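Hey everyone, long-time lurker, first post.

I ran two proteins through the pipeline my lab uses and got sequence/structure pairs for each. Pasting them in order. The first:
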Amino acid sequence: MTAPQATPRRVLVVRNDKLGDFMLAWPALACLKQADAALHVTALVPAYTAPLADACPWIDAVLLDPGDGAPRQAQRELLEQLRAARFDALLTLFSTPRIAWLGFRAGIPLRLAPATKWAQLFYNHRLAQRRSRSLRPEYAYNLELAAALLTRLGITPPQVAPPYWPLDAATRDAERKRLATALDLDLARPWVFLHPGSGGSAVNLDLEQYAHLASAIARHAQASPHWLLTFGPGEQPAAETLRAALGEHGLDAQLVPSRDSLRDFAQGLAAADLLIAGSTGPLHVAGCLNLATVGFYPAKRSSTPLRWQTCNDAERRLAFSPPPGKDSESDMSRIDLNDAALRISALLDRQAARSGS
């Protein structure tokens, strides 16, 4: 007689803030599922990032977090959902008092989070990380937490590697053909996606700086790239202004058409050979796709290129920030854009050679 199979252990993972933060949780999610495919992983996320949580291959179910400002009834309903799910473990990648208290009240037996602030009192397992020192990438801190949880579950943590959003080649080809048809693009030329918006999370290059950068890259690159501008909600006017500025530099740029959902927008980035952006959500989506990325960051300790490093392969990423100094850490005009353009054009040429563009 065959012994009955054990019920899969159920893990709730919380990363309920911005898009970029959520994408940097994907390596930790991959670590959990690759350690034991039988683990049932549920993600608690806000409605904004839920479409990408649905697309994540490492997540089995999605719960919507109504947020700190939600009415009491919505908070009670979430608590009842957590109790009914009978989770075995809670992994909070960024702890807040509300989530800490929620996990405690839900009776989740194993609750692990960074040891930070007074909210840690509601967790029975804590890991000291001191993230404010920004000594490691954010995704590495998340991986460390996932490994600690697995160890407490008696599971050996695996080594994981990009891509953390492993789209198949057919999907990328379909995205390129869709965009080529919509914008009359040459599939043989490299495609550079430029996302000038920031979502307000970090300082960024201004539009004229991006235009100057693109002009310098075009001068140095061996192949003439297509310039494709992406934008988020409320950012289309800025993208149109940048398109006009690029035109003044002799570059023909086009706006990537809007998509029906955040998931469609994110998956559409797979068409790029290279994505250039500030430290914002689309940059980290591209990192999960293991695309070539170029990020522009302030030099503030909380926002450094190391702390918010993309999670793609090291040879596929470049990062630039102002020189250190209290008076210049957020002064993006201090970045040497001509030097950046030389390094970016070399990366673009390597990517074009790899892809056959």
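...and the second, right after it:
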Amino acid sequence: MEEWIFRVTAVALPAILAITLHEAAHGFVAWRLGDDTAYQLGRVTFNPLRHIDPFGTVLLPALMYFTTGFVFGWAKPVPVNFGRLNHPRRDMVWVALAGPGTNFVLALLSAILWGLVNPQHGMVEQWLRAAAEVSILVNVILMVFNLIPLPPLDGGRVAVGILPDVLAFPLARLERFGMPILLAAFFLLPMLGRQIGVDLNIMTWLMGPPVDAVIDLIQILTGNG
């Protein structure tokens, strides 16, 4: 039981913080740039409890971590009225980048903690080292995943904000199809590939190299390489 509690908390707590603080950052930056929609709803807070979706934030990430080693989840989306931003198209980019940027900072802080903790000093230190390792991985995966240039992901909003209209408008119209495309890439194609004996895990091909590169960068920046 103690080992189970150790493993679950070392995975769940960093994952919850990564997912919920990602959303909080969107709301905070939107508020600072002119849209108080999230603020009026009490969502401009770094209290994770205000952002947790019980299934998407807790159950699904834990289940996927223990069954596949991969983490996927979501918090309750922070509402942003892009039309109320001071400079809607430009500020949309900063609001979108706030989430992945927060994940990078959390991964960096977790790597610093990892380097400071000696797991031989006791159970608490062992837990901190394990939680820091999970936090680095989860935050980097969330950052890279959300920077995929497909709406409604943050990378898609960044692309819409910086691309010329001839490219931005067709990309923006893909938003309603974005999540079905991602779910198919995550689940349906790998399942189909297993049935026909072909590796169709597109998300691993797409995300693996940048995730490894970001983790290598963080190790260099924190002196843990």
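Reply from user beta_strand_b:
Welcome! Quick read of the second one: The chain has one domain: 2-222. The two ends are 34 Å apart (CA to CA).
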